[in-house]
């Protein structure tokens, strides 16, 4: 099924159907958190949701589509949380700080979903064995950071780095954000505010002119 067909189908859903899909996605997240990607079968997800596997099959073509929706819904929710906070800013320095701060705050507030997405992205593969999410989202993730960096260079707020350097910095920022998500799983008691402040300070010093 194409993305357009999925979108059209979702637009035509009733409130009850959307609520059921949301429930199934939430139960998929909780199941992955509890037993991991490999063991998160449709049967276990259905049992947690107190429904039959047939109900899941009515709303999702298969397990792959369901887990894909777990990832998509995370990125949509994250985008809705982060970018309105950035779009009201005019200073590239403030934009970069907010980009980091908002992503880490969102991850902190959605720990189960973060863990489930990490499991899916790390383990989901295509029919030819390649990681399913390895390339699809890279440009969408890196582009906003590079846009902020280029704006900062034009306005004289950041040092003059090359296009290659901008990609390396963007990659490093994203890896730092993803690394924070891993640290949340490893150390749930982490002081999030201090972590955010340290990371913001590091990249402020790394980019300032």
UniProtKB/TrEMBL annotation:
UniProt record, GO biological process: regulation of DNA-templated transcription
Keywords: DNA-binding
Alphabetized PROSITE patterns for the sequence: HTH_TETR_1, HTH_TETR_2
Residue ranges occupied by any HTH tetR-type domain in the UniProt entry: 18-78
DNA-binding region: 41-60
MF annotations from Gene Ontology: DNA binding
Protein name, entry field: TetR/AcrR family transcriptional regulator
Protein's organism: Siminovitchia terrae
């Amino acid at each position: 099924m194409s993305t357009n067909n999925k979108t059209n189908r979702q637009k035509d859903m009733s409130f009850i159907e959307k609520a059921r899909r949301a429930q199934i996605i939430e139960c998929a997240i909780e199941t992955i958190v509890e037993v991991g990607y490999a063991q998160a079968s449709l049967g276990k997800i259905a049992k947690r949701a107190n429904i039959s596997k047939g109900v899941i099959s009515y709303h999702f073509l298969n397990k792959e589509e369901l887990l894909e929706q777990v990832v998509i819904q995370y990125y949509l929710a994250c985008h809705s949380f982060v970018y309105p906070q950035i779009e009201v800013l005019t200073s590239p320095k403030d934009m970069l700080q907010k980009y980091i701060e908002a992503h880490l705050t969102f991850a902190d507030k959605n720990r189960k979903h973060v863990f489930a997405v990490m499991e899916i992205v790390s383990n989901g593969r295509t029919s030819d064995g390649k990681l399913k999410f390895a390339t699809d989202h890279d440009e969408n993730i890196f582009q906003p950071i590079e846009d902020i960096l280029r704006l900062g260079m034009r306005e004289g707020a950041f040092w003059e780095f090359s296009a290659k350097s901008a990609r390396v910095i963007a990659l490093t920022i994203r890896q730092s954000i993803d690394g924070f998500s891993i640290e949340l799983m490893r150390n749930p008691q982490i002081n999030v505010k201090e972590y955010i402040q340290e990371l913001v300070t590091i990249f402020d010093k790394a980019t300032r002119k």
